[in-house]
Specification:
The chain has a seven-stranded mixed β-sheet, with helices on both faces. It has helices at residues 8-15, 20-25, 53-59, 124-132, 167-172, 182-200, 240-244, 266-282, 296-305, 323-336, 347-360, 365-374, 463-466, 560-568, and strands at 31-35, 45-50, 68-72, 75-82, 87-95, 106-108, 143-149, 154-160, 206-207, 216-218, 224-226, 233-234, 248-250, 427-435, 438-445, 447-452, 455-460, 506-507, 525-531, 534-539, 553-556. Helix 6 (182-200) runs antiparallel to helix 11 (347-360), helix 8 (266-282) runs antiparallel to helix 10 and helix 10 packs antiparallel against helix 11 (347-360). Among the domains are: 47-97 and 122-161, Phosphorylase Kinase, domain 1; 162-366, Orthogonal Bundle (Transferase(Phosphotransferase), domain 1). Residues 1-30, 33-43, 99-105, 109-119, 375-529, 534-558 and 566-574 have low confidence and may be disordered. By secondary structure, it is α+β, with helices and mostly antiparallel strands. The protein is built from 14 helices and 21 strands. It binds adenosine-5'-triphosphate.
Length: 574
């Protein structure tokens, strides 16, 4: 199956009133100003250059292998060095009238098309130029110019150069150093969603029709950009052009409801985005015969429906530290790939939802310290999961590589987040500490984060037992170190701080764990006192029979600064 190709300019002039001036502009001098009519467009009077063909031949060293970036369905892409090295661009070299380069990865349902009488199709290259000359946004791979070689029937599209490969490579290539962590994954998802939203909110809207990881390129700042507009359609659903264009897309990402031109809507892009989101979450290909079922939708959606969010996480990175992240992303992806197009969310809703997820995808500073101190954590196992935190700083790969250096993240703003999102369970589970080469699991009361004088503070907030004996919104210090004890000294480590002068014992509240989740009852620390090692928190209690984790004694050592901060602040009411 191939693309329909016909005279693009006549098609544009005949069928698409929005494009009439593009054909006129082509006859004008080399540099054109294209006025964009998209509210979201940046840089409204951009210059689209018409390059000399020879200029681009020289810029790509004669389209040499050295400058070759990759091959797609409609041609090859080369790096181009222009303007004496001041402009680095990517040049897509395509045939104007070419259907033979279309690979079977892309799908076009000509059977269902009534296009044969319409004569309004453009080649993918023409189409890309036409659409990209109208939309411009930092989240898109934008058009810089074009060139034609009518002698050889070549069309060259000059777009912004993306030096960091594609999202496909990042997610699936085994040669890349490490798989992206959750912060990056979520950021990519937000950026791609934003790109699609920009297209859908243009006037007239643009439907991309080929959203997939290989069409998401990574720019010099590591941001995701949506590219490849060869199949995109610009216009309202009722426009002749849209009505006459046969369904197209890439197998695995294609909306199953999109069988005839009249089926097209922005919700087809939402479906493809949902597949991409599942790919980002799971690291799985959209279709992978090594899995059963091979379709990422058929595999992931039943797991999501069962609430098994960890089951769809990329095994190379495990679950994100905050379970809300995976839960919200997974549920959103499942909504995007719903079979009824009308029930899928609009891209604006997707963007808003992902922005909220992004806020939660950041790890709190305590865990960076903890990770650093505790030492090596089993790769691909989550260091910890917990239910109530939020912060505005970005930390990547929190649970992947314990050797990754992450700076102390104190003095960052955080908002106080209750565990309301999870109901009143008041428990977080799964802090995994490595002790004597055994990964132990300990259950702890939920922590509430609050901001106090710019310092992050964990406070135990087990509602049922702490009651009014603890002032929850007060700061009680900052963790700088949690030691996992050895046999010879203190036992296991738990985390609780109190502000008190050295040597003065403080009575602490009773803290109980919910029986339904925990593996026993943890009594509160009886005493907190200071010795030359730091604040020692002693607990009444026994070693947990299930975990073998001795919770009877803990020591919390503070570095000088944290200690000073702690002593300078008022005592917590207990
Ligand atoms: N602007 C760019 N900057 C850097 N590399 C690019 C750019 N555009 C495309 N490439 C690279 O060139 C290759 C071919 O891209 P192209 O968009 O033509 O095809 P594709 O998206 O891989 O496949 P298909 O055409 O089937 O969608 C890709 O591997 C991509 O990484």
């Amino acid at each position: 199956m191939g693309y329909f190709s016909c005279n693009a300019e006549s098609a544009i002039a005949t069928c698409d009133p929005h494009n009439w001036d593009l054909s006129k502009n082509r006859r004008k001098p080399k540099t054109q100003k294209y006025k964009t009519n998209n509210n979201n467009n940046h840089n409204n009077n951009r210059k689209i250059r018409e390059f000399y063909y020879n200029e681009l031949v020289a810029a790509t060293n004669g389209f040499s292998a050295e400058f070759f970036l990759g091959k797609g369905s409609h041609g090859s892409v080369y790096k181009a060095v222009l303007d004496d090295g001041k402009l680095i661009a990517a040049v897509k070299k395509t045939k104007l009238h070419n259907s033979s380069t279309t690979t079977n990865r892309r799908f076009q349902n000509q059977q269902s098309s009534n296009c044969t009488n319409c004569n309004n199709c453009t080649s993918p290259a023409e189409n890309e130029i036409e659409i990209l000359s109208r939309v411009h946004h930092p989240r898109l791979v934008n058009l810089l110019g074009f060139s034609s070689d009518s002698l050889n029937d070549n069309k060259l599209i000059v777009v912004e150069y993306m030096p960091n490969g594609s999202l496909y490579e990042i997610l699936h290539s085994s040669s890349t150093s490490r798989p992206p962590g959750w912060t990056r994954r979520v950021r990519f998802a937000v950026q791609i969603a934003k790109a699609v939203q920009v297209l859908h909110s243009a006037n007239p809207p643009v439907i991309h029709r080929d959203i997939k990881s290989s069409n998401v390129l990574i720019d010099e700042k590591g941001n995701a950009r949506l590219g490849d507009f060869g199949l995109a359609l610009r216009g309202h659903v009722e426009d002749v052009r849209v009505k006459c264009t046969p369904p197209a897309g890439t197998l695995g990402y294609l909306d199953p409801n999109y069988l005839a031109p009249s089926d097209l809507s922005s919700k087809s892009d939402v479906f493809s985005f949902g597949i991409l989101l599942l790919e980002i979450i799971s690291g799985r290909h959209a279709i992978d015969v090594n899995y059963s079922p091979p379709s990422v939708v058929d595999w992931a959606v039943p797991l999501i429906k069962r609430g098994d969010f960890a089951g769809i996480c990329d095994v190379r990175v495990g679950s994100p530290p905050n379970p809300v992240v995976i839960k919200n992303m997974a549920v959103l992806a499942a909504r995007c790939v719903r079979s009824t197009a009308e029930k899928r969310p609009a891209m604006s809703e997707v963007v808003e939802c992902l922005k909220l997820v992004a806020k939660k995808a950041h790890a709190p500073p305590i865990w960076n310290n903890l990770k650093r101190r505790v030492g090596r954590v089993e790769e691909s196992r989550p260091l910890m999961k917990w239910e109530a935190y939020d912060r505005s700083e970005e930390v990547d790969n929190v649970n992947v590589n314990a050797n990754t250096k992450l700076g102390s993240r104190r003095n960052r703003k955080v908002s106080s987040v209750s565990s309301a999102e999870y109901g009143n369970e008041g428990i977080y589970e799964g802090i995994l500490l490595r002790r004597r080469n055994v990964t132990k699991s300990v259950h702890m009361p939920s922590l509430q984060w609050t901001q106090y004088a710019g310092v992050l503070d964990p406070i135990f907030t087990t509602n049922e037992t702490i009651g009014d004996r603890m002032v929850r919104s007060r700061s009680v210090g900052h963790f700088s170190e949690i030691k996992v004890g050895s046999d010879s000294n203190v036992g296991a480590t738990r985390s609780l701080l109190a502000r008190r002068k050295p040597g003065v014992a403080v009575k602490m509240p009773t803290v109980r764990l919910s029986k339904s989740r925990s593996m026993g009852v943890l009594h509160s620390p009886r005493l907190v006192h200071y010795n030359n090692k730091g604040y020692v928190v002693e607990f009444e209690g026994k070693s947990n029979s299930t975990t073998g984790f001795d919770t009877s004694k803990m020591v919390i050592s503070l570095d000088e600064k944290s200690e000073k901060e702690m002593l300078e602040r008022p005592l917590v009411s207990i």
